[in-house]
Amino acid sequence: MNFEEKTLSRQEIFKGHIFTVAVDEVELPNGLGQAQRELVFHKGAVATLAITPDGKLLLVKQYRKAIERVSLEIPAGKLEVGEAGSEEAAALRELEEETGYTTDKLELLYDFYSAIGFCNERIRLYLAENLIKVENPREQDADETIELIEMTLEEAKTAIQSGDICDAKTIMGIQYYELMRGDRHGQAFTNR
C-alpha cells in the first residue's frame, strides 16, 4: 500500500526566527482525493540530561507562555543560525548558558521528532556526566528568566506525577535515567 502524500502546492503563512508555518495542498495516496495539511517547520533543538556527581538531575524552572505556566525542564534550546550539523556544540552551549556547567563527556541518547502530526522539530537529547563548573559561564539569553534546580530521581518522578514536570523531552530523559540507573537503592548512574 502506498502511504505517501504528494505535495501539490505550499502556501507560506508565517516566517519567524524559530519556525515557519505553511499550508500544503496534498494528493492523498491511492486516489483518495486531496487534503490540506497545516505544518510547522522548525530549525531543530537540543536537550541535555545533566547528572551531577552525586546523581542529581539538573533542571531549569521557567515560565512557558504557550502553556501559561511555570515548567521544570532539562536544559534545552533551539539551534542557532549556523549550528545545524553542530548539535553537540549547541547542547554544550545551552548547558553552560542555563546551568553554568559543561562536560567532557556528552553522549547522544535519542534523536527524535517532538510532534510529527504537524511539526518537523527534531530534538537531539544528550546525556552529560562528569559535569564541570564553568568559572565565567556564558550569559543566559536576554529573554529568559530561569532558576536552576537539582532533583533526585525520586523528586523528579514525584514532579512528573504532580504535573510540575509536563514536558515530553524532560519526561523522556528522566525515564532513561531511571531505566539505566540499575539498582534503585542508590547505585551510581555511571555504573551502567
Automatic annotation (TrEMBL):
Molecular function GO labels: ADP-ribose diphosphatase activity
Enzyme class: hydrolase
PROSITE patterns xref list: NUDIX
Keywords for this protein: Hydrolase
Superkingdom of source: Bacteria
Cofactor(s) in the UniProt record: Mg(2+)
A Pfam family it matches: NUDIX
The EC number(s) this enzyme carries: 3.6.1.13
SUPFAM superfamilies per record: Nudix
Residues of the Nudix hydrolase domain: 41-173
Name of the protein this chain belongs to: ADP-ribose pyrophosphatase
